[in-house]
Amino acid sequence: MNKGLGFKKIYLVLFSIFIFTVAFNDSKVQALELDKSNNTKMIVLFNENNIDTNVKDLIENDGGKVISTLPEIGGIEVECNTNIIPKIKSYNSVKSISPNHNILIPKEKTIKFRENLIRKSRSQVTGEDGDLYDLYQWDIKRVTNDGNSFQLETGNHDVVIGILDSGIDEKHPDLKNNLLGGENFIPKNFNGDETENGEPKDINDRLGHGTYVSGSIAGNGRIKGVAPNIGFKSYRVFDSKGNTNATIMSSAIIKATDDGANVINLSMSGYDLKGKCYWVDPNTGIKQDLGDDMAEYALYKRAIEYALNKNVTVVTSAGNDGIDCSDGQNITKFLNNRDKEEGFIYEGVAYQIPGSIEGVINVSGTGREDTIASYSNYGKYFVHIAAPGGDYSKTESMNVNDFCLSTSIGGQYMFEVGTSIAAPKVSAIAGLLLCQNKNLTPKEVAQKIYETSDKLDNDKSKQYYGEGMANAYNALEENK
Question: Alpha-carbon distance 383 to 325, whole Å?
Answer without folding.
Answer: 9
